[in-house]
Amino acid sequence: MKDLTIQDYAAIATIAALLISMVSIAFSAWRYLNIRSQEMEKERFETFHNMLKLISKGRDDIGPLKLVSQIAYIHELNKYSEYKATSKQCLRMLRKEWAAKEPAETKKDLLQAIDEVLAELEK
Question: Domain range spanning residue 54?
Fold first, then answer.
């Protein structure tokens, strides 16, 4: 076996340093992506629950929501497939509640929107 020279040791050290740097960069990138994914998941969770609150209350900080806004929010629930079971349960509860107490004109449009979304969620 050939004796290693100082240049050989320097080359080995350079390659080792490069590999360590690459592993460090890969770990940092993985960690960043993992944290970002958790943040996005939290944002989606908060947005979903905020939409449910707006739909069920029928008002926001400014005042009552227009019927069109409530219907749009109901249809937006389709985009949250990870909360499909919760969406179906909440919409069924709202449908039952609104069918019993909302005025006929308002009730018709809200119930139709709920029925459409529930049909989509059942697919």
Answer: 6-122
